[in-house]
Specification:
Blueprint lengths: L1 H17 L3 H6 L3 H19 L5 H11 L9 H8 L5 H14 L5 H18 L1
């Protein structure tokens, strides 16, 4: 479960904040560094409050989230593009809350969550 959450949060967070596919982000200036920094924050939170990922999974998810030619997007990003509600609280918000409870700073996850909350509020206004 923890590894799936790492993948979902990483993919969704990167796609939604950057508004692009994994490949588009990877090809942008500092895109790969951004993706790896987001992943690092997520893994740190999961390691503090749950079960850290296996080394094999860590390597695989790094490759997946930084693949220059990838057209991969998350369902959360596809929902965002369609203008429908997304799982901001369940995927990113929960991680931010767990990090805060553990006394951890997560500036990138915080920015992603704020961005998603602004989007969600627009849907209900």
């Amino acid at each position: 479960m923890w590894e799936k959450w790492i993948m979902l949060a990483g993919l969704g967070g990167i796609n939604c904040l950057m508004r692009g596919t994994i490949g588009e982000v990877a090809q942008a200036p500092r895109g790969t560094e951004f993706a790896l920094a987001v992943l690092e924050e997520i893994v740190a939170v999961v390691g503090a409050v749950g079960v850290p990922p296996s080394p094999a999974f860590g390597a695989a998810v790094k490759g997946m989230l930084t693949a220059a030619g990838s057209s991969q997007t998350s369902s959360m990003y596809r929902d965002l593009l369609r203008g429908v509600r997304i799982e901001a609280d369940q995927i990113i918000g929960d991680l931010v809350g767990r990090a805060r409870a553990a006394g951890m700073e997560t500036p990138l996850l915080g920015a992603i969550y704020t961005h998603l909350c602004v989007y969600q509020r627009r849907l209900t206004s």
